[in-house]
Amino acid sequence: MSGRKFSFEINRTSSAPAATLFRLVTDGANWSDWAKPLVIQSSWARQGNPAPAGVGAVRKIGMWPFLVQEETVEYEQDRRHVYKLIGPQSPAKDYVSEVVFTPNAAGGTDIHWAGSFNEGVRGTGPFMRAALGGAVRLFADKLVKTAERESS
């Protein structure tokens, strides 16, 4: 096992308020409403504190039989959400992602979504960074569109 660390970051700007974006990204049961085609199914495996999406919450998202579980490890209402991948082994070990929502001068919100992981299988790091970064890029774009549609 090489253990090399890889990371990516995605930045977006939305006209929607931070509260709307935060609610959508932390609501594990409803990702399937806005994150298609990568997320066809979404549900809570466990609710957190504060319920439902706070620290300790576990969302299950994806498409059967490839459902991943993500646990909330840090939760700052309307500002910051940090989660980690839990469950079955993956070529991306110790995956952690952080989404930060910052109100901007134009009245909208700047979004910074970053992820990092350790390469679990030698040589898979660049591929996993591209796959995970691509998925998060798609999620960020869908999140912005959905939040702006709800806010208009």
Q: Would you write up a description of this structure?
A:
Pfam families: Polyketide_cyc2. The protein has 152 residues and is an alpha+beta fold. The protein has a single domain (5-151), classed as START domain (Alpha-D-Glucose-1,6-Bisphosphate, Chain A, domain 4). 26% of the residues lie in helices and 41% in strands. It has helices spanning 18-26, 31-34, 125-151; strands at 5-14, 41-46, 58-63, 66-76, 80-86, 92-103, 109-119. Helix 1 crosses helix 3 (125-151).
Topology:
Blueprint: E1 5-14, H1 18-26, H2 31-34, E2 41-46, E3 58-63, E4 66-76, E5 80-86, E6 92-103, E7 109-119, H3 125-151
Antiparallel strand pairs: 1-7, 2-3, 3-4, 4-5, 5-6, 6-7
Q: What is shown here, in short?
A:
By secondary structure, this protein is an alpha+beta fold.
Number of strands: 7
Mind describing the biggest β-sheet? 7 strands, antiparallel
Count of discrete domains: 1
CATH top level assignment = Alpha Beta
- State the CATH topology: Alpha-D-Glucose-1,6-Bisphosphate, Chain A, domain 4
- In the sheet with the most strands, the strands line up as 1-7-6-5-4-3-2
Q: Unreliable segments (pLDDT under 50, ≥5 consecutive)? A: none
Average residue-wise pLDDT: 94
Helix fraction? 25-40%
User: What's the architecture in CATH terms?
Assistant: 2-Layer Sandwich
End-to-end Cα distance: 49 Å
**Counting H and I runs of at least 4 residues, what is the number of helices?**
3
Keywords:
single chain, alpha+beta, Alpha-D-Glucose-1,6-Bisphosphate, Chain A, domain 4, globular
